[in-house]
TrEMBL record:
It is found in: Cytoplasm; Nucleus. Nuclear receptor that lacks a DNA-binding domain and acts as a corepressor that inhibits the transcriptional activity of other nuclear receptors through heterodimeric interactions. Component of a cascade required for the development of the hypothalamic-pituitary-adrenal-gonadal axis. May also have a role in the development of the embryo and in the maintenance of embryonic stem cell pluripotency. Its main location: cytoplasm. This is Nuclear receptor subfamily 0 group B member 1. Keywords: Cytoplasm, Nucleus, Receptor, Repeat, Repressor, Transcription, Transcription regulation. It comes from Bambusicola thoracicus (Chinese bamboo-partridge).
Amino acid sequence: MACLERCHCCADGRRHGSILYSILKSHEQAAEGPGPRRGLAGRGCSCGSQRRVALKSPQVACKAASAVLVKTLRFVQNVPCFQELPLDEQLVLVRSCWAPLLVLGLAQERVHLETVESAEPSMLQRILTTRRHGEHAPAPGRQHPPSAGEIQAIKGFLAKCWSLDISTKEYAYLKGTVLFNPDLPGLQCTQYIEGLQREAQEALNEHVRLIHRGDQARFAKLNVVLSLLRSINANVIAELFFRPIIGSVNMDDMLLEMLCAKL
């Protein structure tokens, strides 16, 4: 599309100052074992899921997530039916589904999350900080680390995917179902997009019937995976994987830049 080529040319001129470049630039990598950790919620404490947590090795995990995001958007760009949509329709779809697609990609790439409890400022520190800044308005967007419960939802989703041993084709059909969501406000090609989502589901069902003939419940299990994605908050994903590297990030701006680049 002409608009994509124009945006790409503009991006070339500011490559080293771009958001994408900032995410993917080299970091000193720390050695980290891939083993998963269990149960983040506090034992015997009903408020354990509200404790704040952070990535144990943020540069390693964030770089892995950034690579998955690039791979995910490359997958989206290579879907012919997606390319046939107007650019504004593409943006509506990507802005809505980037987080669930990213988490599906994390599952497919077997990215494990190591987290540690994050120290939060005390009530007194918050009061003093507020008084020191006077009447300044708080910065927009989420400013506190994700809770243990939010991270556990992501870990639970990854574990569910790994337990099902989802194949590459199944991941592709699941991504197609997530990508082509006809119920989003602002879409004009709703019938076309609804048809694409239906085709993705039918292709998944047909694949499961041919490959997993002895597991008649597999298609339903894969749809449970899709339902679990609804509990994952896009703001949590942005806070967890992108703020540690590039600070306060406007995901819409970053997605637009990446969508208009030849990844």
